[in-house]
């Protein structure tokens, strides 16, 4: 009876997690995906030009870009209009954001429509710089490197297949030299979960053998205790 109960509990535990994974897979097929779903990968493919002391990288899968400026030049990142500066890191290490850039407000939400810029923040407004750090480094959310909706992208016809969603670009400038970050956003397919029957059977065999061993040891100990407790016959 004890062995049966343990086997049932083991099976329930092993099948609980696969069930959760399958439920998530079904939600993806239905067309709704969490915005931070691990299926997305945004990759920085190329930086042109490459400048000594200036480094870039995509972090958190498909969410943010990090810029580190250790050069002796000012680095400017442009907003979504393409010609208006959003961020700059001076040669001194001061990090400044343009509060008149629509990107300043839009980047505060994962989706571009999450925050509405005020009337003074337009693509033609003069820059209004505010210092936010003096570390020479800054990380920001950029809508150009992720998918803008919770729906599965149109390009993804099969959620189990890795698919290119789109190529992206982020314009910048180092000193007087313009540049571009080139990247790509990819949907990473995931094969449907299959229950590892062989592993489950092996686990149950080991579990039942262990339980059997414990039961046998306990019975032997109980038998030894009973034998020692019986009175011995006196020899005459």
What does the model show?
By secondary structure, the protein is α+β, with helices and mostly antiparallel strands. The protein has 2 domains: 2-23 and 196-227; 33-187, no CATH class. Helices cover 28% and strands 28% of the residues. It has 3 helices and 10 strands, in the order αββββββαββββα. The chain has helices at residues 2-29, 102-106, 197-229, and strands at residues 40-48, 54-59, 64-69, 75-78, 85-89, 95-98, 129-133, 137-141, 163-174, 177-187. The strands form 2 sheets. A 7-stranded antiparallel sheet has the order 1-10-9-4-5-6-7. It is elongated, with a radius of gyration of 31 Å. The relative contact order is 0.17.
> What percentage of residues falls in helices of 4 or more residues?
25-40%
Shape: elongated
Query: What Rg, in angstroms, do the CA atoms define?
Result: 31 Å
Biggest sheet statistics: 7 strands, antiparallel
Low-confidence sequence ranges: 6-35
Order of strands, main sheet, comes to 1-10-9-4-5-6-7
SSE string, helices as H and strands as E: HEEEEEEHEEEEH
Number of domains: 2
Number of strands: 10
Average of the residue pLDDT scores: 80
Gap between N and C termini, in Å?
Answer: 47 Å
Task: Tell me the number of helical segments per DSSP (H or I, 4 or more residues long).
Answer: 3
Classify the secondary structure makeup into a structural class. Answer: alpha+beta
What fraction of the residues are assigned to beta strands by DSSP?
A: 25-35%
